User: Fold this.
Amino acid sequence: MSEAEAVRSALQKFQDGYTARDVTQVDSFMELFVKSDEIELVGVGAKKRGGDEWFQGWQAMREIVEGDWTYWGDVRLDVAGAKITVAGDVAWLSTCGDLLKTGDSEKAFPLYMDMMKEILENEKLDLTTRLADATVFGVNQMRDRTKDLGYAWPITFTAVLVRKPEGWRFHTIHWAMPPG
Assistant:
């Protein structure tokens, strides 16, 4: 198997985990990642390092994966069409896919209400910014709620993997969704 195909195999295992969304298997899924506090995941809502949707470290990565599997919809990445580049012990890839709305997404609304409350109570921001940010967040959630089950939001996915003795492991992941 070529190195690019070995990386594609790791991406397929990643996709398999996101397809199954079995939270009892999160720990075994996490074997796909470098066990380090240096790993990071930049989520679709990330604006700055250390802020919302920007996670660093193995434990934070585990928590976001569990949250994705509990609250997010079905992820379908184009594994076969992923562009993969390998240079020594580092590989990077990019692909597209979609996120399908499932009935599970309804479970997220209490979480969204808590997030909105955090925005409103963030004393580091002035009142106008808090209200504007909470309004934008709330309108986005309302817009998403109007979508029918099975609605597919387009996503892009990029990742950096590192070759370890046990195989290719994810180091950095970036999820993105076009606005709108």
About this structure: Residues 103-148 form one domain. The chain has two domains: 3-100+153-176, 103-148.
